[in-house]
């Protein structure tokens, strides 16, 4: 095993990936397994570099760079050395043989070609991301990350120097010169540039309590769902009244499991229909972009038509209520089997397709968080499908079944006002998610988390059976509210929805097109990645305004259930804990990604979710 050469905290010179340029960096850590150094540039950017890409500062001698305005005769006599020339050139005055000269010239050509092809990678940010200051039309009011601009300026400087070296050492024929000009023009227009492939690294920082925490959660999450559903079935669902455990044979029904499979396959068929536009997701670590078909809203319309046909033929939809516990167990069993399949197939997946947060090397942890980032069967993306289809639409169908069950159990001609509010609020939330389906492609679930037990159980079990807890509670514990109270709750939900939707739309529109005239009044901080961090609008109010809107809506969903028991408020309590934990994960990842720019953003926007509180 090779010994480590550079120590943590040591300041060295690191080669920028894909180029021959070295910059001053600081070693932060070393991976003994992958033999990679994690280094930090002055602008806060962190990269993993091989030992061969790092040199000590003493190996670099400072030379006075030659002016580009020097005459050809002066250049030929002084022979100043540029960064793009081969470091192996003999000292001045030494005679070379003809063979050595030819080899040196070939080395020069090769180095120049590699540099000219590598530079576009350094500067080929999208115009809409890198030149957002110019697009906004407010150069004076736009915040700017000075460090990132200096880095970009340093990366652009070798452009003229390469051109000079090509002119000075050109020994090709006119035909070769023509090819050279074509390559140079391709570099300028950013055509045919091979993206940088990051070396895969092991997950160093374990979340969710590490191996022990994830092992406990594999059992704790199903037990929580079972406990909540049993509590709702009791006449007195107080915390001190622990429900008795049901017989194991009563929790399983083959017919119920068959209905669940039929539902899952129906949604898969709708997902595969060639309707809706096809869009590209965010770039992966190897630069590749996956394609996704956006047809979730069409699938919802088709699902509503199927449910309407079943009701027309007098299908008893409250069958879901009568076998609710068995449906939850069936979904849990299916999600467990799916998680096992996902982990087994991930063992054969290429390194670049593994999830950055689920590649620890520990079986339990990777099984829970998800080892593979985007598992696909052909064009069928398993994670993206489960994110919005079976569970989210199942949530709406369950709510409708609870509404019909309430009318049947209590002999009502119309559902109660509380049940109508819960169904209406949550239906709006689901329809909004499906209408803005493309926005999910930028979420942490898609871009960072692998598809394992955590997301499989969450999408297929937790969302439909825990998020519908208020409707399930109202069937056995009817609550009467007045119209003024209902109006106040409706206003509260509308406020939460407005914050949630406008904040997300503001962020997504800025990511797509910073030049949009509607966003001209927004200020932002530029980052070394070429993206901007909004410091005005909703994102200048708090760092996660969409989370604030989510929590307000969650409270509005629980209020129609009254205040007799805390059980209907489990969702809002859980949601606050979830979003605070997710905000902490976001904070950690953004600090690593944006460096000093994120620290500046946190100074300008000090509150995370709740203004003046947290």
Topology:
Elements: E1 11-15, E2 22-31, E3 36-41, E4 46-50, E5 54-55, H1 72-78, H2 98-123, H3 127-130, H4 132-136, H5 146-156, H6 158-168, H7 174-189, H8 210-233, H9 254-272, E6 277-280, E7 291-294, H10 296-312, H11 319-322, H12 324-346, H13 363-369, E8 376-377, E9 380-381, H14 382-388, H15 390-409, H16 417-435, H17 444-447, H18 453-466, H19 469-476, H20 483-512, E10 524-526, E11 532-534, H21 538-541, H22 545-558, H23 570-594, H24 596-604
Antiparallel strand pairs: 1-2, 1-5, 2-3, 3-4, 6-7, 8-9, 10-11
Helix pairs in contact: 2-6, 2-7, 8-12, 8-13, 8-18, 8-19, 12-18, 14-15, 14-18, 15-16, 15-18, 15-19, 16-20, 16-22, 20-22, 22-23, 23-24
Write structural notes for this entry.
By secondary structure, the chain is of the alpha+beta class. It has 3 domains: 10-58, SH3 type barrels (Roll); 209-480, no CATH class; 481-613, no CATH class. It has helices at residues 72-78, 98-123, 127-130, 132-136, 146-156, 158-168, 174-189, 210-233, 254-272, 296-312, 319-322, 324-346, 363-369, 382-388, 390-409, 417-435, 444-447, 453-466, 469-476, 483-512, 538-541, 545-558, 570-594, 596-604; strands spanning 11-15, 22-31, 36-41, 46-50, 54-55, 277-280, 291-294, 376-377, 380-381, 524-526, 532-534. A 5-stranded antiparallel sheet has the order 4-3-2-1-5, with no helix packed on it. Strand 8 and strand 9 form a beta hairpin. Helix 8 packs across helix 13 (363-369) and helix 15 packs parallel to helix 18. The longest helix has 30 residues, at 483-512. The protein is globular, with a radius of gyration of 30 Å.
